[in-house]
Amino acid sequence: MRITFLGTGTSQGVPVIACGCEVCQSLDFRDKRLRVSIHLEIADKSFVIDTGPDFRQQMLRERIHKLDAVIFTHEHKDHTAGLDDVRAYNFSQKRDMPIYARPSVLEQIQQEFAYAFTAIKYPGTPQITLNEIHNTPFEVEGITFTPIEVLHFKLPVYGFRIGDFTYITDVNHISDEAIEKVKGSKIVVIGALRKEKHLSHFTLSEAVEVLDKIQPEQAFITHISHQMGLHRDVDEELPAYIKLAYDGLSVTC
Ligand SMILES: [Zn+2]
Ligand SMILES: [Zn+2]
Ligand SMILES: [Zn+2]
Question: Which residue numbers delimit the Metallo-beta-lactamase domain (predicted)?
Fold first, then answer.
């Protein structure tokens, strides 16, 4: 399996519009973070987890010419806003795009993209098929995804384990039961916003604490804010097995 970080930034992205801070002004390409998403290539199958507002740009940058399905973590706009652009795959693949999410997320998507779900559609509207998932393993194109339910303030969010790889984005609480499901993963990706306390996201040290319990071979931090600091500095402060992810980074598992 090949995993590509399409975006590693928090909801506003980095740089933030109209911000003059050191991180937003940095010339290091690793300090430029689009909204969070990953691409998974498994055998000849191709999936993305979430379609944030930068989806189009990310698909073009990584030259992803084929997409079999979209799997959603939760309904926040920084994870869903780009869904309209699956139209390009509707045209090129001549079929509907299957999306997978929990019922509450599917409901939100049907409200936000109501025009894609009306009985009579304007020509060129995205063609999407809805697939409900629950907190139990499910298959997409023969690949098994195991949801890892976590909390993002009060909102339940799904992380996903696929084989030896686990991806968890927006989170500030993980139950012991969920940690057990992640254990044994070789690579774990987890969200951490910044170093200071936050209402709905882990801080960097809280994420490190969770990773220490899981003990993967390799771990990456994502969903990063400009308040985290410069990539170069923060990366050096971390234990050897943990790295900050950056846009375009690709790993195999
Ligand atoms: Zn988010
Ligand atoms: Zn800034
Ligand atoms: Zn969120």
Answer: 47-224
Taking the centre of ligand 2 as the mean of its atom positions, its distance from the CA of residue 25, in whole angstroms, is: 7
* Residue (of 142, 135, 177, 141) closest to 160 by Cα position: 135
Ligand number, closest to the Cα atom of 21: 2
CA–centroid distance, 9 to ligand 2, in Å, is 12
Ligand 2 centre to CA of 209 (Å) is 26
Ligand lying closest to the C-alpha of residue 225: 2
Q: How many CB atoms lie within 10 A of CB 138?
A: 16
CA of residue 76 to ligand 3 center, whole Å: 5
Threshold 0.85, pTM exceeds: yes
Q: What is the DSSP letter of 93?
A: H
What is the SS3 assignment for 215?
Answer: coil
C-alpha to C-alpha distance for 216 and 197, rounded to whole angstroms: 25
d(CA 228, CA 103): 33
The three-state (H, E, C) secondary structure of 12-72, written as one string: CCECCCCCCCCCCCCCCHHHCECECEEEEEECCEEEEECCCCCHHHHHHHCCCCCCCEEEC
Name residue, tokens 């920084």: 78
Taking a 5 Å cut-off on Cβ, the residues next to ion ligand 3 are: 76, 170
How far away, in angstroms, is 34 Cα from ligand 2 center? 14
Q: Which ligand does the CA of 52 lie closest to?
A: 1
Answer yes or no: are the C-beta atoms of 38 and 16 closer than 8 Å: no
Here the tokens at position 19 are 């911000």
Between the CA of 40 and the centroid of ligand 2 the distance, in Å, is: 30
